[in-house]
Amino acid sequence: MASRSSIMRSAGLRLLVIAIFLAAAGFLCATLVRFAPGFGVDERELDSRLSDRSIVAIRGAHQDEQNVFRFYAKYLAGCIRGRFGDSELFQQPISQLIQDRWVATVENIAGGLALAWAVVLLFAFVAVTLQQAVLDAALSALSGALISVPAAVVALLVAMARKPACLAIAITVLPPLYRYTRNVLGNSWNAPWIIAARAKGLSRPRIIFSHVLAVAGPQLVALAGVSLTMAFSASVPIEVLSDSPGLGQLAWQAAIGRDLPLVVTITGLVATVTLLANAGASLANEMLQPA
Amino acid sequence: MNMTLLNTIALALLILILVIALGATTFAPAGYAKQFRESPNSPPCSRFLLGTDELGRDRFSRLLFATRVSLLLAPAAAALSTALAALIGTVAGFIGGIWERLTMAAIDVFLSLPWLFLLITVRALLPLNLSPLLSVLVTFLLLGLLGWAAAARVVCAGVRSIQASTFMLNARAWGCSQRRLIAVQLIPNVRPVLWAQFLISIPVFILAEANLSILGLGLPEPLPSLGGLMVELESFSSVHAQPWRLAPLVVLALCVSALQIIKGANEVRV
């Protein structure tokens, strides 16, 4: 197992890289938002009933947003205080919109991932331990067929069958997860010491829990972090097409309505969550690695 | 079934689809935007092999043009992302040390990002008055620019293992210059890895474009794409009554499955 100091160093480096990346990505997004067509133009300026002074006052309200550095500093300061500004599309504070929607996304993703992992582990263990070529080929063909269908079509089919959105997330995440898990478990199952344990007549559950998972565990933990990223990506089309009011649907509504502050904030927030989850999974992987 | 036979069938199927799609202007009975206003929502018949959509456009013709768009531009995006991966991965693997660690950290971060959120963000930032052709190019350019990370990690690992090989050690001992080492020893040996990464990226980009188009953030009308044609599947009730609406999904699944099989066979060979 890795030493405490090396794990702390690794954690520090990861957090530093994430912080630098988020700051750079945030600045890039702020720049893109600042220079996007229509930025700073208030539709009230077109209202002929307003006087010149009112128009000047409306323009003045956007004056401090003209400089991209000032705009970014103001935006970042607001984010740190938990204020992400207001949505132009919904005319509501962005933090309120996120608060209203995150529960649905968490439910969809948690349900989908739990279901996907349960199915994946079951089928991967069955394929690896039974070592039946036909069964293995059938499962691989099934995962190959599922991987060829876009997440949006899976969402449509699930919605057509009136099943919950988490099922669509599970079906979308399942094929790549199955392939990796099957490979990882297959490599462990065929390791020399496990072949020796099998030859000695150890029971299958004992081999799986005491030997196979000990070797494959760290890689599966790292894969769990990646599966969260996959689930978040799949949540966009799935929530949109199954009309599930989550962050994915909100991001899509913001993109279609060109509500740039909202779409950038949601993307930043989701990216932060997935980056931290993956950093955590990678650290757990390092901690679980045999010395 | 024998892997080689399966690979041959997949390759033949893909070539067939590609040839038909490339010859869309010859094989298609009508242009993709041509409207037959007297027969909207027509069922399949000898005139319209897959019927017409609600605007009276021939579905079969649109399917051929859509396949051409997806099958030409996804490899172009894959080539771009593989080129980026080759550059970043080779430089990091060749120089090594802190640069390699930094590049790997950046790749880890990039791989942890939910790409669809990034894509819809960047799509939302684009001007509304982009021409359809420019919009197609921008969509696939974005896919290419965002898809390099996984391939770069594999290329970097490949370069590192080539760096540690005996033939590289020999070449260095013989006094080969850095430029010659890269041109004669490194690049030819890293080529199979790049080819495999290129093949892996194509189906990913086809599916990504399909997802974006179904969400209305892909190619603008009237230009068809496989994802764009699948928007018709949104009216659930009509799919049961008109199963020919599933044709774009069948073509997409065939293309992606064929590419997966070819990719799998190639990985085995690499």
Task: Based on Cα principal axes, name the global outline of chain B.
Answer: elongated
Total helices of chain B: the number is: 12
Number of strands of chain B: 0
State the secondary-structure class of chain A.
mainly alpha
As an assembly, this protein is heterodimer
Strand content of chain B: under 5%
- What is the end-to-end distance of chain B? 21 Å
**Rg value of chain B:** 22 Å
User: How many β-strands of chain A, per DSSP?
Assistant: 2
Shape descriptor of chain A reads elongated
For the biggest β-sheet of chain A, the strand order reads: 1-2
The description of the largest β-sheet of chain B is:
none
* Biggest beta-sheet profile of chain A: 2 strands, antiparallel
**What is Rg of chain A?**
24 Å
The helix fraction of chain A, in percent, is over 70%
Order of helices and strands of chain B: HHHHHHHHHHHH
Query: What's the pLDDT, averaged over the residues of chain B?
Result: 85
Give the uncertain stretches of chain B in residue-range form.
none
Kindly, what is the distance between the CA atoms of the first and last residues of chain A, rounded to a whole number of angstroms? 4 Å
Percentage beta strand of chain A: under 5%
The helix/strand order of chain A is HHHEEHHHHHHHH
